[in-house]
Amino acid sequence: TIQASASQGGSITPSGAVSVAAGSDQSFTMEAEAGYEIADVVVDGQSQGKLERYTFEAVSADHTIDVSFAPVAGGALLEQDFESETFPGRGWTVKSTHSGIYTWHSGAMSQMNGSRVARVDGDEYDWSDYTTGAKQDEYLISPKVNLAGKTPTLKFDYGFGRYALFAGGIRLTVEASLDGGATWSVIWNAKESLENASGYYQTGTYELPIPAAFCVDGVQFAFHFYKAAGDTADAAAIDNVSLTDSAQP
Question: Which has more confidence, 148 or 206?
Fold first, then answer.
């Protein structure tokens, strides 16, 4: 039996008393909630550091694993680099009309960086008849955060197929919801907020002040990739998302 527990600010999966067949391996995944980060993972009383995943190999005795979380330093209310072993991780979710690479997934975009990013590829063709692309309506959704009394800024890295976006083939927006994702309001539109630059893929970093109407408890944010059926498509990607309170040092 492996006893797995987590402090306030996150979770360990699986948790509680986990039964393992003798000689088998058992893995655990640790995820921090919005505004928290992993402080330490302690296995059988010994610190293992800030791990997101730990595996007991060839189990032959009882064990314990405990993960502790701490508030993120520096005024950060939410951080996400999409480097978790499970995508999207850290309490984020995906609402999709597609699967695989045609919705948000863990991928790469070399024009942005050499690490994992959240990426969605444009489905230009309906492979049943090879003539028209399928509609895509893909949301990458943050956990709920408390922004009451704060002056927050959402910062993120972006990348997208420039020709498709500025021609209207794809749309990339940031949206906010106050009702658990039932309805969304656009607070940033890549086509309207960015200048048409150069190169096949356009990349950069954007800092978005959050409108006062969404500085409340329980707000969520989403990166929304949309393409109408038949439109010329291309990829988009998001990485290194952070939400910080400018009133904090």
Answer: 206
